[in-house]
Amino acid sequence: MLKRLSLLIFALASMASAQTVDTDLYSGMKWRLVGPYRGGRSLAVAGSVQRPKEYFFGATGGGVWKTVDGGTSWAPVSDGFFTTATVGAIAVAPSNPDIVVAGTGERDIRGNISHGDGLYRSDDAGKTWRKIGLEDTQTISRIVIHPTNPEVIYVAALGHIYGKHSARGVYKTTDGGKSWAKVLAGTDRAGAVNVVMDPSNPEVLLASTGARPGLI
Q1: Peptide bond into 52 cis (omega under 30)
Q2: Topology of domain 35-210, per CATH?
Q3: Interior CA angle at 82 toward 105 and 159, to 5°?
Q4: The whole model's pTM is what?
């Protein structure tokens, strides 16, 4: 029941937000394939309005990739820094596009998945990375960075995919990842699937929870 209620709240909030969008603003836009063709499937992508041609994406099995020319070319930027290859969540700080946070683990459940080993942070737009904790969560679903204070970060952790796990939930840091506090506890079977922030008030957050089918 808790899972259904949280999903319903999230869905209603999303619907309310969608109703305020003027579709004429993007009616002339078209999709184009930008690659890279050897990066693998992707669950995570992020960019910054301050750098409209710079984007990062996380591949499941291929690490973090970066483009600075709107997708014309891509380069892997996590090689040599990450000790796991699967990236399931990534975020760029709205107030400082040099700060990028990547969460490892494959959150979209399939017949086979790759687990992760926590969070990584870059303070130089992907040139170098360091680990900033939550290693035992194994699967990080979403990352949200405060719009004006990049040291405040929220993380939704789905946790271990195939068994009970107490580390599930939503975590918060106020010191850029040096320490973490669990601010919304999941159960040992259901973890945090998503967390979003009200764009008009960073004190308001919505989170949804879920579990692998058959685990509950």
Answers
A1: no
A2: Methylamine Dehydrogenase; Chain H (2.130.10)
A3: 20
A4: 0.84
